Sequence to fold (643 residues):
Amino acid sequence: MKLATASALATSVLAAALPLTAHAAAPARYEVFVPSAAAARQPLAHFADSLARPADRERALRRRQLARVAAAGVPASLLRAAQVAAAPQGAHFTQVQDDGAVIAVSSTGSISTSALLPAGDVNGDGVRDLLDVRFGTTASNQQAVMTAVRSGTTGAVLWHRLDAVHPQHFVFPIPTSVGVGGHPGVVLLDVGFEKRSNDTIDVSDRLTALDGRAGRKLWSHGDQGSESFANGFSGKHEPNLTGFLQAGPGAKSALVTISDYSDDGSGTQHGTVAVYRINGANGAATPDGAPVTSSDAIPRVFGFTDLSGDTREDYLVLTAGASPSVEARQGGTGQSIWRNTSLALQPGAYPLPAGRLTGAAVQDLAVTTGTPAPMLPTIGTPAGDVADPTSPAHGQVALLRGDAGTQVWSQVGDGAFAVQRAGAGKVAAVGVTTSDTTSDANGTTETLHLQAYDLSGAQLYDQAYTVQAPGDRSSGTFSYGFADAFAVGDLQQDGALDGEAVIFAVDGSNTRIRTLLFDGSNGTALPGDHEFVGGTLTGAGDDLVDVTAGTSITVTARSGRDLHPLFVRRLPTHARTDHAYAYGAKIRGRCAGLIVLSGSKSSGYAAVLTATGVPRWSIEHAANDLTAKAATLGVGPRSASCG
Fold:
């Protein structure tokens, strides 16, 4: 999916919605969980109103599993589609956005149960092929997922298969390289939980590798653990897919962690995390470095870019607590590359590739330390100089050298974005965000600050954006705010990555949302409410796209440099659609083409366009159709690759 998916998905879901409060009368709801950028880093208790009730425990586990697979690289479109397909008949869908609190909003539209994802060149014709995924129920009312690989040139089905999805499980087909030769293929990720008793729930992960050329099974690897709620909550042999790393020649390896930990619910934690590499060629599991143990925190593992300089992908282990640590490890061996123990890390700390800023041969990284919570005053050294040192308003963002792990600077912040170049001179820089929520009788206001700092730590800019939800005390005093920013692409081709920001505030039954594009070099808002393509259609800077659903789908591609239309394409459909979006992917040549997805409660539609807007092919199907039907070829030069 495109780089802006995290924000685009959340805002598209929330934009036309009305919040449901605890006192509002509504039909039975089925929750569709949309993980935010911070969700995967949170402890289990974060996802539940109370872990004392069995129903809350199951919902919390479900949310956390979905947050983790999102962090491991499962596209948001698959997360939504799988959840919708698992809903009981006649359910009223709600969306959930999670980052410190849970908000349920009523969805007036429909949600797609299908996705179209770029895969590798399976058939070797020089054109990237695509993965067609659909979730639904069979004639015998069995939940299932259809996985099909289609030719990027014609949409012809190269192979397809149907797999059962067991209750309380989700299955996500993920394109990656597998097998002895490391050819493009698919891995089915099955995540689930099964209730053993009111106090114990079994959790599991299973990876099944499929040969991309024929769809045959190559290998399978599974792990199972349990969650206990007898005293707070604890995990035993709990598996978690962290992601796929190119840790050697040939197939990518899956990085899996096995955790044993305890959390009494009041902030007292301890845990041990072991890291394993699942060989993409044959599924063999081998330890990837020594286990990490903490007496007052639960260590976290994050897949990362190359930090050792051997051109292979690596990973990071972040450990909060009284003995904090950021350790870089080689993805193929688990050998330590460097270790930084100078940062005060809180639960929720996470790393972000920041680009090659300091002149090293590898990317540097920004580490968001997390914000100390009032209930955790003894974990780490409080960040920031504030009146109450145990509960500062914000955490810190530290810039570390990627080759050595040494700190360049540290600034107050709640998040980071990889702006790379900023200021009048377009100097090396890192973007830092702070987010503040205030609430009174007039309403709830959310403020996002976009900031950038150069390598000396000097601030290059500070731009503030706000949104206010009018006060509504008719259903209590519930209020909430969320804001974040994501660097997406270089529209001006000036070295500064531009981005997208999302800001929303909730007060009672009132919700206000603002999304904006911003210039990464100075933080100023850009005109229009367009979406990033996630690539270039012309070879001259990243571009933008607008998509409108209806009796036909209208796709308008725009130059990211000056917003002039590159092309306008009207795609006729047999059935009216009520939601649509597009994102870029390199299908052929150096420029991106567009993958267009649209649908309604009764149908789904997808099309693949060249960089000049010529349809390569399209598919249209009923909402619960799990058959791999023939595609409709477009009319025109399907070989076009750049405008």
